[in-house]
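Give me structure tokens for this 411-residue protein.
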Amino acid sequence: MEKLAIDANYLKATLLELLAIPSPAGLTDEIVHYVGRKLDEIHISYQLTRRGTIRGMLRRNLPERRKSSPACAVVAHLDTLGAMVSRIKPDGRLALMPIGTWSSRWAEGGRVTVFTESGRHRGSVLPLLASGHVHNEAIDSQPVNWAQLEVRVDEQIACDADVAALNIQIGDFIAFDANPEVLENGFIVSRYLDNKAGVAALLAALKAVVDSRVPVPMDCHPVFTLSEEVGSGATAVIEEDVSEVIGVDIGPVAAGQGARERGVTIPLMDSAGPHDYHLTRRLLKFCDKYDIPSNRDVFRFYHSDAGAAVSAGHDIRTALLCFGTDASHGYERTHISVLVNLAELLTLYIQSGPTLPEDRQRRTDSVDAFSHQFDPDQRVSVETSQSDAGKVVQSADAQNSDDRSNHPQIN
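Here you go.
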């Protein structure tokens, strides 16, 4: 295996193109077309589900590998947060409901596009009390919730009839401008780095693997999902040949968290529970061996495509690779070096083959070949003051026998 060089310019250009395409969950067709074209350029074949989830195929190129070798999947989501028109007010302002889970404080002041069934209109998301010249200090005591916001459409609108004339209706999508900025010092600031930065890193890794023609020991499926932000994600797209799933997603940087805007963040657990012991430790060892900075973390309020796949009942090992990002689900910030490190680690994983040899089989009929999470020395029993289990059971059986003799059952 070798750590491949990542084209950082390709990664940045791809990220900016992704950020320019509105893709709130439920409005993702255009970004599916974009990613499909990028896979065509890299020469990776793919299939689409009815809704547009992309399942690519990077085939193993080592003919001596057994045909029963399992496949792996690397999953990143294309959908973002957003909103939807929930009501048209008598004065022509639009009430909105969030798509995905995010705070209204990050929506306030956002520039948006309202997508109708026949066109689009620009607007701003404003609090109900928007002018200090009118409401004075009352604007500072407004609640922080979605009911306190409305969309002001940039058209000549005085009432709801004017809105209807523009064909704006309940259920129209509202996409927020990403407003990306790439700084000379390497920082990238934007809405929706979650998860367009992850998608860009995955595409850059795939390009590096294909261009370098390194050995690929097992089929690898790059999967791009469409509904991670609303909870379903990779529930129905993982095929039976897949034994391992790597999720690629944001890593929240905050006080008390291990994620950093430097290196790759590998969480050992999130809201869905612990990720696979062997797979996560293997990825951490790759980082140590190939000089990729890494951070360990545990995420408290976090769901991902990897967790969704397990929740759907797939018998797979999972891990999560994250790019550390400040202010997740807001105006997010990460660093280009983080995304390059993430892509480097993905190239190593794609070259690595199954995590455990026994995973080549879907079922085994004996524990003899099954894995151990501890070394032999760790499995040695430690002497404690606890009573011997066999003696405890024998004593309990004897006591029960005595009880039956002293208190015979009355028929």
